[in-house]
Amino acid sequence: MTSYGRHRTVHETEIDAPADTVYAIIADATAWPERFTPTVHVEREPLGAAAERLRIWATANGEVKHWTSRRDLDAAARRVRFRQEVCSPPVAAMGGEWVVEERPGGATRLVLHHDFEAVDDHADQVAWIGTATDRNSRTELDNIKALAEGWEDRSELVFSFSDSELIDGPADVAYDFLQQAAKWPDRLPHVSRMELTEPAPNVQAMTMVTRAGNGSEHTTESVRVCFPADRIVYKQLVTPPLMTTHTGVWRLEKTADGIKVTSHHTIALNASAIPAVLGEEATPASARAYVRAAVGGNSAATLAHAKRFTESAHAR
Prior knowledge:
This protein has 316 residues and is of the alpha+beta class. Helices cover 30% and strands 45% of the residues. The protein contains eight helices and 14 strands.
């Protein structure tokens, strides 16, 4: 495969927030799944004090793509250069730069540059990349603008929690229970329907209908990235009204007493939906407690069923 033409795009936005805050959001790549709508998961490898290698899974034009990038960070100049080392077709090459410019009055101008090449420079492939780059760039800039301008309010709306279960059985059996989500409607009483596809090895796209304790149902759409016998990370692309973001990980750890399986969640609440969902008297604190009980309850139930399934299989 060969590539020819180099194509360039520029996107920018004005942000009513300090430049240092904007730069910090861009620099912290491991938090992107909670902050940027297209990003599903990021694995970071440090390459010295001011460089890093990122393995990124993200949605593009409705598809899940995976690539590896190197980033060079210049905190003094508030610039981050990036270049894909391993691309995902139809991308043959991709790079660019984040430029954070301080403006008068404490505001910020954020500019995002991209340059890319398409496999064989086919016009339809160039158009596909251009559309995906434009859509994701606009979404990321909007996300950064909203995050930076509401930075002081995030402490009330973003929270994390975990639930764990100790399992006396093989890690691969416990992992298979979690990975084989297509079987959950037959194995988990709170899952009433499941549609699951695997668009790439160890990548799952799932639409799940969950039944609450009061009999009501809600639908979520998620992408999961599976690391066999170790962990499954996921991001909900369609969340319940009370959330704007929900990411998580199922993690398996060998201990002296068995396999510790942990379900970890990071959730951002939708502040505008709190009164409509929970009543006019509800607060971010009461919303956190409500979500913690609902989401944690489902996680605990899944962990309990995984324990029974694994220990029963191990006993046979």
